[in-house]
Amino acid sequence: MRAYLIRRLLLVIPSVFLISAIIFLLMRLVPGDIVDGIMARMEEAGEVSAVDETILQRQFGLEAPLIVQYGRFLGVVKQKDGVFAGLAQGHLGISWFTREPVTQMVLAKLPVTVELGLFSLIISQLIAIPIGVVSALRQDTAADYVGRSFAILFISVPSFWLGTVVILFASIWWGYLPPIRWTAFSDDPIKNLRSIMVPAVINGLLMAGGTMRMMRTMMLEVLRQDYVRTAWSKGLRERVVVYRHALKNALIPVVTIVGLQIPILIGGTVIIEQLFTLPGMGQMIIDALRRRDYPTVNGVMVITSLTVVMVNLLVDITYGILDPKVKYN
Fold first, then answer.
1. 101 - beta bridge partners?
2. Please, is 321 exposed, middle or buried when counting C-beta atoms within 10 Å of its C-beta (0-12, 13-18, 19+)?
3. pLDDT tens per residue, range 83-117
4. What whole-number distance in Å separates Cα of residue 190 and Cα of residue 70?
5. pTM above 0.85, yes or no
6. Which of 15, 110, 224, 229 is the most exposed place for a label (fewest CB within 10 A)?
């Protein structure tokens, strides 16, 4: 187990390196950069010149070849001031727009996105697993049809539509509007929960659909196994058969689905954060993309990819907890 963990942790380095290279290249392939935006505004004001463009290119380091720019981002090539500062030194760069360290910006926004994602994940599992189990145990009954219908509904409905409908009808019927100001949990837990619970429930419902269907399918398969039939033949109660014998094995593919939902959840919170005015990473990444703020986009994507890699490692470890037959070589 220890050797497996060490190998997986060592694989994080080339994984993040490859992801950062892809993100770095894709951002440069997008038409236009921050200099083009500044030049367009200067042209509207009648103050543009070729000299200004050259100066701006040097100021942002865009005059260097792509390999040099990427080396500076990694921290293996000196910055313009002659200092090694990059990913290798734990430095994500300086935002071109706000002039703040990207690491500091991420640390300020990350708690909001993590809290929203965590609550959404908990709510989705609290909904999906019980309904999936009941739907499998009561196959082809009214409870099964209702559970499957809700699963298809949650899969089909887009987050922006459901969020808009909730805000619209809640404001008409109950006078509810999302709080304008964000309150941290440490400052006021009650206000914080009021801000986070509605968007978390919406996200959780939309995530629950796929997990619910997988839970039902795997539960049906496990219930047909010989060892479960043996448990039934012993006269054990339904609760004992389900929770002691069937549920653990049925959860293994569900854990995989949850692991795959993490990156989707990180990206999906962008829309929800916009609708409910949550000051998370969603607004920051949208602003950075619109302004072609390369350091901010690269930094956020590196943090996101690192999170996904670590979540996948956690999912693999969970397999061994749920099924002792799983061996790590």
1. 94
2. exposed
3. 767 777 778 888 888 888 888 888 888 888 888 88
4. 45
5. no
6. 224
